[in-house]
């Protein structure tokens, strides 16, 4: 099970005091873990390109890096005054190489600001796809850490034979919720669009499995949300009419999960309306064997 011990905040594309940086500092202090504060400068980005008219590329890069170092120094002093252990660094490298950098510093969690518009940018999706570790995208605006966390699980792939990731996702979310003093809620969508008319038995079986999973993790009945619909739309609409501070979903290493929540993750995240934690799961979390065993399990659940 993943528990964050080293946090990495990516100050990209701008090096400014932001909601993401504030969140990263709060989380590092709450968990009692170090924070790597890193400013990336894209050597082929617009920032350096705009500077090269009056000076050489090397001079422009050195000047921008000096500005980043000064910014990191001031932010580090501010965070250290609060008791956060900070490790500042400036990297002149392509932003898509952030994932490799996270491995080098042995980070367990990457924290990055979302763009001003709803959802994730193309860069965010590239980072999420390439990152070997979990990624927390922080929504712009006032930071709310002691509120409500929503965990999305996919009961279509729930299996008694092996953990498909649902248990790990819930445990990580619970660890963070307890540390932040947040209430933990659980949601799953019964995909009514892929089932034939009258599949009440299958719906009841999935709902029964969902309640069993929630009970196993001590989630109160009023914090359980099992709803029908198209997964992406149902979760997005639910988030829009509810006040949650963090959505927690699973993502397999190097690609999104081959499940309803995974395949429709982009649709969910484009309108999530809150911060999002994408937890990277082992590559075998949704193995064909697990999927087949889960499907074979459903008739037994229906007959019971």
From TrEMBL:
Q: Which domain of life is it from?
A: Bacteria
InterPro entries associated with the record? UspA (IPR006016)
Chief place where the protein resides: cytoplasm
Keywords, A to Z? Cytoplasm
Family matches, as SUPFAM superfamilies: Adenine nucleotide alpha hydrolases-like
Where in the cell is the protein located? Answer: Cytoplasm
Q: Which GO cellular component terms, listed alphabetically, does the Swiss-Prot or TrEMBL entry include?
A: cytoplasm
Locate the UspA domain: which residues? 20-139, 148-280
Role according to the record = Required for resistance to DNA-damaging agents.
Q: Which family does the record claim for this protein?
A: Belongs to the universal stress protein A family.
What's the protein called, per UniProt? Universal stress protein family protein
Species of provenance: Pseudomonas moorei
């Amino acid at each position: 099970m993943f528990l964050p011990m080293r946090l990495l905040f990516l100050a990209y594309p701008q090096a400014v005091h932001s909601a993401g940086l504030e969140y990263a500092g709060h989380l590092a202090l709450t968990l009692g873990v170090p924070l790597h504060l890193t400013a990336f400068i894209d050597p082929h980005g617009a920032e350096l390109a705009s500077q090269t008219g009056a000076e050489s590329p090397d001079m422009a890069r050195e000047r921008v890096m000096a500005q980043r170092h000064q910014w990191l120094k001031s932010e580090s002093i501010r965070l250290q005054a609060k008791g956060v252990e900070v490790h500042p660094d400036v990297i002149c490298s392509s932003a898509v190489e952030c994932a490799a950098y996270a491995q080098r510093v042995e980070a367990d969690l990457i924290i990055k600001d979302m763009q001003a518009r709803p959802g994730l940018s193309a860069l965010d999706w590239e980072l999420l796809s390439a990152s070997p570790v979990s990624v927390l995208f922080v929504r712009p605006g006032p930071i709310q850490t002691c509120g409500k966390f929503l965990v999305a699980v996919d009961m279509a792939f729930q299996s008694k034979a092996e953990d498909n990731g649902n248990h790990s996702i819930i445990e990580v979310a619970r660890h963070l919720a307890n540390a932040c003093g947040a209430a933990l809620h659980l949601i799953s969508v019964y995909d009514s669009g892929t089932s034939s008319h009258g599949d009440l038995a299958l719906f009841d079986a999935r709902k029964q499995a969902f309640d069993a999973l929630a009970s196993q993790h001590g989630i109160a009945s009023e914090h359980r949300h099992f709803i029908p619909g198209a997964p992406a739309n149902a979760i997005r609409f639910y988030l829009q009419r509810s006040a949650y501070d963090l959505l927690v979903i699973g993502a397999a290493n190097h690609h999104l999960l081959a499940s309803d929540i995974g395949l429709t993750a982009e649709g969910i995240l484009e309108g999530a309306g809150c911060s999002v934690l994408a937890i990277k799961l082992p590559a075998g979390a949704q193995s064909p064997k697990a999927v087949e065993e889960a499907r074979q399990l459903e008739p037994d659940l229906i007959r019971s």
